[in-house]
Design brief:
Layout: H1 15-25, H2 28-33, E1 38-39, E2 50-51, E3 54-55, H3 72-78, H4 81-99, E4 108-113, H5 133-148, E5 158-164, E6 177-178, H6 182-198, E7 204-207, E8 211-212, E9 215-216, H7 222-225, E10 236-237, H8 243-249, H9 257-267, H10 280-291, H11 297-313, H12 333-345, E11 348-352, E12 374-377, H13 399-407, E13 412-415, E14 419-425, E15 430-432, E16 465-467, E17 473-477, E18 483-486, E19 492-495, E20 501-505, E21 517-521, E22 537-541, E23 547-551, E24 554-558, E25 565-571, H14 573-582, E26 586-592, H15 612-624, E27 628-633, E28 647-651, H16 658-667, H17 701-704, E29 722-731, E30 735-744, E31 750-760, E32 771-780, E33 785-793, E34 799-801, E35 806-808, E36 814-819, E37 825-831, H18 843-846, E38 848-849, E39 855-857, E40 859-863, E41 870-874, E42 886-895, E43 900-909, E44 911-917, E45 922-928, E46 938-946, E47 949-957, E48 960-968
Parallel strand pairs: 3-4, 4-5, 5-7, 6-8, 7-10, 12-13, 12-26, 26-27, 27-28
Antiparallel strand pairs: 1-2, 8-9, 11-28, 14-17, 14-25, 15-16, 17-18, 19-20, 21-22, 23-24, 29-30, 30-33, 31-32, 31-36, 34-35, 36-37, 38-48, 39-42, 40-41, 42-47, 43-46, 43-48, 44-45, 44-47
Helix pairs in contact: 1-11, 4-5, 4-12, 5-6, 8-9, 9-10, 12-16, 13-16, 14-15
Length: 969
Amino acid sequence: MTAQTPPFRDSQLPFAKRIDDLLSRLTLDERVAMLHQFGPAVQRLGIAAFRTGQEALHGVAWMGPATVFPQAVGLGATWNEDLVRRVGEAVSTETRAMRSRDDRVGLNVWAPTVNLLRHPLWGRNEEGYSEDPKLTSAIATAYTRGLRGDHPAYWRTAPVLKHWLAHNNETDRATASSSVRPRVLHEYDLRAFRETVEAGAVAGVMPAYNLVNGRPNHVSPYLAEQLRTWTDQDLLVCSDAGAPSNLVDSEHYFDTHEEATAAALLAGVDSFTDHGTDGSKIVDRIQGALDQGLLTEADIDAAVRRQLSVRFRLGEFDPLLDPYADAKDFDTPAHRALAREAAEQAIVLLKNDGGLLPLTLTPEGTPTGEGPRIAVVGLLADECKLDWYSGTLIHRSTPLEGLYDRFGADRVDFAEGVDRVRLKTSDGSYLSVPRADDAGEEVRGAEGALDPALLAGRTNLPPLTTDDVGTELALIDWGEGVLTFRSPDGRYLSVAEDGFVRASADQPGGWIVQETFRLEPRGSREGGHGNGHGNGHLLRHVGTGRYVSVTADGVKVADENPTVLELEITERGEDAVAHAAASADVVLVVAGNDPHINGRETEDRTTLALPAHQRRLLDAARAANPRTALILTSSYPYAIDPTGPAAILWTAHGGQAAGTALARVLAGDVSPAGRLPQTWYASDTDLPGLLDYDVIGGRQTYLYFEGTPLFPFGHGLSYASFAYADLAARVGEESARVTFTVTNTGDTAADEVAQLYGRPVSPSVPRPRRELLAHRRVHLPAGATTELSFELPLSALEFWDVAHGRRRLEPGGYELLAGASAEDIRLSATIDPAGTPPTPRPVLERGLHAADFDEQRGAEIVDRTKRSGDAVTPADPDSDQAVGRTAELVYRACDFGPDARSVTVEVSGEGTLELALDDGPAIAHLDIAPTTGPYAHTSVTSPFAASGVHDLRIELRGPLRLAHVGFSG
């Protein structure tokens, strides 16, 4: 180091000392400015501007063309950590390459999403990996390792996990609270985060919009109490977009933005994503909090230090030593091959009756040199759909294109199955799409955008008009009455900011989709009734809520004077499908969702059912030809009738190589080996409430679900068959070594995903029916055998003991179950590790935290204070003040000692409490006088007589909040 080189530029010093030096040189104003997502440059020190946040869920998103891999749920379906690590490497390499030519591209990547896929109606199901915490953490760890790189000091990109914590609903997502009991918190929701962070390739986390136990995630005490205890590294916590303002504006949790911003920073938020690129409001709020004494300079320094730690690890201050500085690999042949491999490995064969697949035989079963004649039909048969977190396609392969390439265009017939319609006005004219010679092939977002939500619709094309003939439009009903209309040249009807309706969009998309409409019966606007299937409709634009109106200037949407339209159908989709299916050897019905419609960020689904339009097409295909396979291309599971199609496959939207990959699997070039990463339920009635986060009490996911699934967790078939044998287990002091063999008994090489589950034989508390402990995806030639070995930490068999607030390995036997899915168990063995026997709750010494119940009825957990702690209140969705609200809490095996004589409760609100032992009558009754607010706790004491060990039952009546129960002798 020369005399002119400051220590923070000295690469020979440890990062911590360099950060100390840089912090000492930054002014308070400069440090405060760094806390916004878009931190400005500090030119006097030669420090560049820095932004947190580059979306990279399954490829570099929002910044223009990039390699697009399968959706995250598809990567989860591969059950292949090595593959996912390589995908992460490719994504981070392209991130570096794109940044070298566009400094808008950031190196702090906001990926992966490790929210567990607890509920299949969640709109963002596509973003997660699995309903299981073990599989989720395994895939997430692999992806973050790929994103991070292998250098011991410098990182290729800095991944941030989303979205902390217990976040599975878009409905009221910024105001809804997830009630998460301690066992669910520690055994389920925290696990995916914890195991991924402990693996050492995570730079930070992003809190979610929702609240947990009544407290917004952006002021969660778990950031300090849990997250930061899992690693010695400085973790960067980045807020979600707009969430800091939500603390005041929508959640009303704090009275002022200064108070809210200070609370978030003190809880652990280090970078505030708010007001786009304008950091002035956040800076003003932080400065105001400093002026009011809500923050100190030390608080600012702690947050800036964590941000600088990431910047140093990214090599920003050591450009000559950064091993990734010259990364140029972008859209390479290797990346294209990897995209195809990932898409192939994500395909799940759910059913294959009669060996319909692979497509190598004629109906009579005789080989033919020409191959079968295939009819590929359905709304997604010629689509390569993207989602909100996709990049722009460089390459594109639809199922139809893949089949053309693999089997020859002369062997493949196609029918999309759209309804062909004209829209007729009451004066007899028809809506018409004007000719636009200069329409071009403009693709939304192709130039990249820091915030694609701000991209405007096209206004350089003429709006729709009317004439005597009109334009025949392709109508698709995506379910729940949501429609799209496409013009003959492939452009979708869309509404731009000026309100005119144009055929201008390459696909439905955008933060607020402008390409969807609803046909409403005439009279519905005034609250009347009408026949939804008859003539005389109003066409409502979903994005604006306005109705289509024909004006002198063209067709537009408006609040007044809607035009009554008659829907004339010129061809029904099922007729075209039936015609194509009738002459085919095999029919492939490609169905599924558009990731921007009916289930996406901001919008949950309302049903598992396949939309009626697509059911019509499937029925038509089957009626015309029983040799029909259903190919579901979707971001989430469906509830379908599995008895109809001869074969069923599922794949998430597979990215740029989806069609090629599908064709190779259908042809038998690759045997399918994807496995379901979440349960497929048979009916909506199998589902819990969307906001019921108690997976234990609600018997949710494969871990606890007691019904019969449509297809179980881990399910997936192959063109080969596999035999399992020789299960053996040997228990050591801290782990168990488990081995078994898998043999390919088929006549084709294939992958198998061997799965190992465990469960206690005689649990003392509700435990999973079976829980994934390990898995391995292996490739086996025909006839080959391999021995698989797993070293299982005994901690994997522990549960969270609410009686003592710690994890505990219960003594007794544990079954180990090896097989091909959670319900396809081939081998079992029992081990008996040494555990810790249960002991009663020492309630006379410690009392009870109310949230540490064993069982509950009608209760939800809320915040004890705005900063920390939990309380329990009777749940009531209708009113905070309903005096009829009741709840029951059960605490098992409470030790009251030789003579407990009184009980003292810490409580707020008003109502009554009754305490009873075992199944007996109430022995204590406490009336709670109204307190001044939900956080104004008071202590109320009552006589209470008990001795020895008993179950305790507490009944709560009224809008009160119980925080703690203490006993004295």
